[in-house]
Specification:
Rossmann fold, globular, 16% strand, binds guanine, 2 domains, 279 residues, alpha/beta
């Protein structure tokens, strides 16, 4: 079975559009992008387009590559204090001279729709309510909407980043999975993946996951975004793994659209918590 993230995200966005209308609220998202990286600009454009589709107002701040950490923090604080803004998204990666950690910590946890503030990360690990990172949350939605059992399953997460691997492991633990986290220093990766009911790869290495590494019938979620000879591909050797996996996400059209749909859902949640009526 191919897990169609594109179709699922469209369904979720349609449902969200109705919820926003029914709630009579007018959520506002602010995005910040620093520099002119074409990939980042494309992602931000897609986020604004999704906002338009569901009835979320969005504003985009575009700052020069040469902007400094303090300038960015000043902008974030202005958005924190702006009662019209429900969600703040800082597109990553930021230029290397900017202290990303300081900038992300400046975002008000209540408006942190990316779920990257340590307050929200702590809430996630503690199993408390809060805004959770969009990519791993979108993956949990794929698993639940396709009725893939998580409780009691052995999930192997490959990657330990703060935006995907670590929150993914926490969400799975909170959903009663048995979780193994592997990474670039793991020896004999296939030992772990062959014993997994669910494999989630966020390594950023094309063709890392091959058919021989997957238990027949297992679910394979590909978070990789790699460009090989100008072609977008994931971490999974899709054609061969499709033959053994019970379910698999394609790249593109799998996890990516769900990340954006989850960002919209997080913005809606932030707005509901702030309870701002439509004008
Ligand atoms: N860059 C790549 N993925 C993401 C994401 O999920 N959020 C943000 N803010 N930037 C990203």
């Amino acid at each position: 079975m191919i897990l169609d993230g594109r179709a699922l995200s469209q369904q979720r966005l349609e449902i969200l559009k109705e919820k926003i209308q029914e709630a009579g609220i007018s959520p506002h998202l602010a995005t910040i992008i620093v520099g002119s990286d074409p990939g980042s600009r494309m992602y931000v454009r897609m986020k604004h387009k999704a906002c338009e589709q569901v009835g979320i107002h969005s504003i985009g701040l575009e700052l020069l590559e040469s902007s400094l950490t303090d300038e960015l923090i000043r902008r974030v604080r202005m958005l924190n204090e702006d009662p019209d803004i429900d969600g703040i998204l800082i597109q990553l990666p930021l230029p290397v001279h900017i202290d990303s950690h300081q900038v992300l910590e400046a975002v008000s946890p209540a408006k942190d729709v990316d779920g990257f503030h340590t307050h929200n990360i702590g809430s996630l690990v503690a199993g408390m309510p809060g805004l959770t990172p969009c990519t791993p949350t979108g993956i949990m939605t794929i698993l639940s909407d396709y009725h893939i059992p998580v409780a009691g399953a052995h999930a192997v997460v490959i990657g330990r980043s703060i935006d995907v691997g670590k929150p993914m492991a926490s969400l799975l633990i909170n959903a009663d999975a048995t979780v193994t986290v592997c990474h670039s220093k793991t020896s004999d990766l296939s030992y772990y993946t062959r014993h997994a009911d669910i494999v989630i790869s966020a390594a950023g290495r094309p063709k890392l996951i091959t058919a021989g590494m997957i238990r027949p019938g297992a679910t394979v979620i590909d978070v990789g975004i790699n460009h090989v000879d100008g072609v977008l591909c994931g971490d999974v050797d899709f054609e061969s793994v499709l033959e053994v996996a019970g379910a698999i996400t394609p790249v593109p059209g799998g996890v990516g659209p769900m990340t954006i749909a989850t960002l919209m859902e997080n913005t809606y949640r932030a707005a509901m918590d702030a309870c701002r009526p439509a004008q």
